[in-house]
Design brief:
By secondary structure, the chain is of the alpha+beta class. About 20% of the residues lie in helices and about 40% in strands. It contains 2 helices and 9 strands. The strands form 2 sheets. The chain has a 5-stranded mixed sheet, with helices on one face. The chain has a 4-stranded antiparallel sheet with strand order 5-1-9-8, with no helix packed on it. Helix 2 links the parallel strand 3 and strand 4. It is globular and about 70 Å long. The mean pLDDT is about 85.
Length: about 160
């Protein structure tokens, strides 16, 4: 009798599991190589923040930070207004500063549902005792731009995105 009850309830159990996990929103993430080529400036290494900007123009997520000394994060003024309030752990998405003429490659993850929906990627840059560029590079997040090269307006010469 117990075996009969198990065989009758097992399909209901399996159906419940599929129903429970079948409707959860698991966002697929795409991985991109992001190469940043700097201009030939003199001075300290640049702090660069890569952010996801929502369609309303607000910060949604920090994707990567070049510069791992938190003492200088406040120099990236607009991003600090967003990040400084929450102080999320970003250790896994930080790297060294980038010097003038230098180049760095970062790996960033972007949810697939953010592409072609009005989101933007913003690269902010700051160098100690020099300028701060809120939109050194900024572009619409589309299926074309994630495979492109975009010119910078400050310390960044250009950014090249490459899907992985």
């Amino acid at each position: 009798m117990k075996k009969s009850l198990i065989f009758k309830t097992f399909p209901i159990f399996i159906f419940a599991i599929f129903a429970l996990f079948g409707f959860t929103n698991i966002s697929e993430k795409n991985t991109y190589k992001c190469m940043i080529q700097m201009t030939n400036y003199t001075g300290e290494g640049a702090y660069i923040v890569i952010s996801l900007i929502n369609p309303e123009g607000n910060y949604e997520k920090t994707l990567f930070v070049q510069g791992d000394d938190e003492e200088w994060y406040h120099d990236i003024i607009d991003w600090w207004k967003f990040y400084g309030k929450k102080r999320l752990n970003i250790d896994a998405i930080t790297g060294a500063t980038v010097s003038g003429g230098g180049r760095t490659i970062s790996i960033i993850e972007i949810e697939a549902n953010k592409i072609d929906t009005g989101y933007k990627i913003r690269f902010e840059s700051a160098v100690e005792d020099q300028e701060y560029y809120i939109k050194d590079v900024e572009f619409d997040l589309t299926s074309q731009t994630v495979k492109s090269k975009v010119e910078g307006t400050g310390f960044i010469r250009y950014v090249r995105m490459m899907p992985q």
